[in-house]
Structures are given as C-alpha cells and as structure tokens.
Amino acid sequence: MSIIPRRSNLGHHWNLNESTIFLNHGSFGACPSKVLDHQKKLRDELESDPINFLDVKAKKLWADAITTFSEFIKADKEGIVFVPNATSGVNTVLRSIDLEENDEILVLDHTYQACWNAVDFVTKKSGAKTVVVSLPFPVLSPDQIIESILKSVTKRTKLALIDTVTSPTGIRLPFEQIVRELQSRNIDVLLDAAHGPGIVPLELNKLQAAYVTGNAHKWLCTPKGSAFLYIREDKRDLIRPLSISHGASVDGNINEKIRLEFDWTGTQDPTPWLCIPKSIEFVGSLSDKGWEGVMKHNTDLAIKARNILLDALKTQKLCPDSMIVGLSAVLLPENDIPLTSVLEPDPFHTLLYEKYNIQVPVFAWPHHNRRYLRTASFLYNSIEEYQYLAEVLKKEI
Ligand SMILES: Cc1ncc(COP(=O)(O)O)c(C=O)c1O
C-alpha cells in the first residue's frame, strides 16, 4: 500500500481529523475553521446579552442572511424562509398541503428515504397514494429520466418530490426540465435541493418550482442546522411552519405573515443561518472564479474520482459524466454481506473506516437490491485520496 495521502493545499482551512481520509462531504458537509470562528463570535455575543441579541441584533443579521442567500440562489427574498434542514423543509410542505383520497404523489426509486417516509406519512393519513417511479439505471441520458417520470403521471398526480442530486446514487437530475414538464401538466414540484446550493447553480426565480428546500450545511459549508425553504408566491398562504408560534396571532399581509410565522418558531440558536453570508463569501474566495470555480473544481474532481474507482472495481458506469457534480457513486460487486437498514452502518463502511481510516459512505439501497459506494469531492480533497481508496478496494473486494 502507498503512504496515507494528504489533503489538497486548501485542506488547512478545515479542522478535519488529520488521520482520516474524508470522502464524505455529502452527508453533513464540513465547515471551515474561519466560518466556525465567526459562529463562535456570534454565540459569544448571544450569551453576553441573550435578550438584545435575539430580539434586536439577530433580527437584522437574519434579514441580511435572507437577502444574501436569496441573491445566491436567485430567488425573491419574500419567498425564502430558513428551516433547520431539508427534512424539515420537505415535511413543512407535505404537512401543509391538502390531499384528497386517491391523490398521487410521485417519488423516485432514488429518493432520500427520510423524505420518502414523509410522503408515505401524509399519503397514508389522507387515503392518497405514493407512486414510485423506477428510473432506468444505469442511466444513459437525462431524457431517459424525464421519460420515465412522465410515464408515471396520471390525472390524480398532485405533487412530485424531485431531487437536484440523488442521495444514494449521486446523479445530477435534469431537474430544470422535470420541473418544466411536470408543472406544465399542472403537477406541483417539491424540489429536494438538499444537495443544491453550492453544488449546482440554482436560479429559483427562473425555475418557478412550487417549492424548493435545500441545505446550506452541505455544499455551502455552513454550520449544521442551516437550510431553507422557497415557496412560490401563489403558494405562500398555504404553507405554514411545522411549529405554529407567536406569528400566527399577529395580523399582516401574506409577505409579512410568512416572516412572522417562519422567522420565529420558538427559541433556538440562530447562528448556523447567520453564518450563511460568511460561508458564501469565504468558500467562494477560495477559487479565483468564485463559486462557479468551486463547483467546477468539485465536479471535475468527482468525475476523476469516479473513473479511478471504476477502474479498480470494473463495475458498470452508472451515468454519463454530464450527470455528475460533486458526488459520484459506484456500484460495488455483489457479495454475501447482507444489506443493512438505513440506520445501521454498512459492514464494508465500518471496515474501510476502522482498518484504513477512510470515511466514505457505503449504502445498501434496498430499492435496487444493491450496494453503492459514494464519494464526494470538495476543495480540500486530493486525487491521491481516491487513488488510495481504489488500492484498498482492490485489496478488500
Ligand atoms: C437528497 C437528500 N434529501 C434530503 C436530505 C436530508 O438532509 P437533512 O438531514 O439535512 O435534513 C439528504 C441528506 O443527505 C439528501 O441527500
């Protein structure tokens, strides 16, 4: 085995454990030390005068964070609210909409299981139906995906939960076309952009999806617990926060009500959201082409990583390069290891971590009856890290 590889020359901006080969930016992101320092400063201020901070200072910083973030994802700021994570964003929409018996909600057989469960929860309760679209996989072109989604549409299809980038398989879906096609058939799209800001360019005003939720704590590298929900103008009186709080009894027009209801849902630490402008500025400054450069760097590295692993594993390529952004998955050869549930660590993941200090997700994906290994690529990663993983895979598989 070659020596343990080092991170890239930008690695020192993150506090990641020196002895771990960290190839899982995709699960929870990773926050640079400069942004964590900023959060600590805000927290110290909060605790030095909780009342003034939460009642006065944080409100101004919150409004600034909403403005900066809305500009980043090109959305009108009146439609943007902060939520703790994408799971909450999905639940917020699903638990606000009215479903009738026999209505149908589309999910994909690559949909993140927690969000799929939320769909099942509301469809079961209302007598509606969850319809699972099986995507062709391996996939040869974006058109194949659009075609199979449209084939599953019926007169009863009310909503579709569509990903920007799929979680178990790391596929960048042609979500812009999917939104256009479905919404032209009167089907609202709830876009799961958990892997959204900072991994794919977003232009929400142009996209006009009914709802978009996504995380800042993954690809924008903010502290954990910072995510957003975008609600298109015509839907704003329908969607209510999961926690009904003070704002519900205060009068206002629809744009004021959204702020009143979503900006205060009970006492919590607002600093993860307040760090969004700092993250956008700091991580964007690490490439001379700003965020466009960051995303391109990560995409190029992810494609190289995927090719190195395919070369070692000799399994099928799962999608064309054009459908890869910062995440990429490979199929693991079949073996006798039983598939575990989503909440248990996969034994092969544990082996890679415990024996080689490689932190990389290995997913048993029961909907495909297969096991995938998914690498992420961020500015701190180096090509040598994937080469090392490939050597280990050759040895252990
Ligand atoms: C596609 C997708 N949706 C939703 C989520 C949930 O994100 P969170 O745990 O931040 O709510 C994830 C997390 O990995 C995801 O990959």
Detailed description of the structure:
This protein has 397 residues and is of the alpha/beta class. The chain has 2 domains: 11-32 and 288-396, Aspartate Aminotransferase, domain 1 (Alpha-Beta Complex), CATH 3.90.1150; 38-280, Aspartate Aminotransferase, domain 2 (3-Layer(aba) Sandwich). Helices cover 40% and strands 14% of the residues. It has 14 helices and 12 strands. It has a 7-stranded mixed beta sheet, sandwiched between helices. β3, α5 (113-126) and β4 form a beta-alpha-beta unit. α2 packs antiparallel against α3 (50-72) and α12 packs parallel to α14 (383-396). The mean pLDDT is 97. Pyridoxal-5'-phosphate binds next to α4 and α5.
User: Which structural category fits the helices and strands?
Assistant: alpha/beta
Shape: globular
Q: What is the terminal-to-terminal distance?
A: 15 Å
Strand order across the biggest sheet? 2-8-7-6-5-3-4
The helix/strand order is EHHHEHEHEHEHEHEEHHHHEHEEEH
The strand count comes to: 12
Whole-number tally of structural domains: 2
CATH class of the largest domain: Alpha Beta
> Number of helix segments?
14
Main sheet: strands, sense, barrel: 7 strands, mixed
The low-confidence runs, each spanning 5 or more residues with pLDDT under 50, are: none
What would you say the CATH architecture of the largest domain is? 3-Layer(aba) Sandwich
Give the integer mean of the pLDDT values: 97
Pfam family, one: Aminotran_5
Keywords: Pyridoxal phosphate
Domain Aminotransferase class V: 55-311
Protein name: Aminotransferase class V domain-containing protein
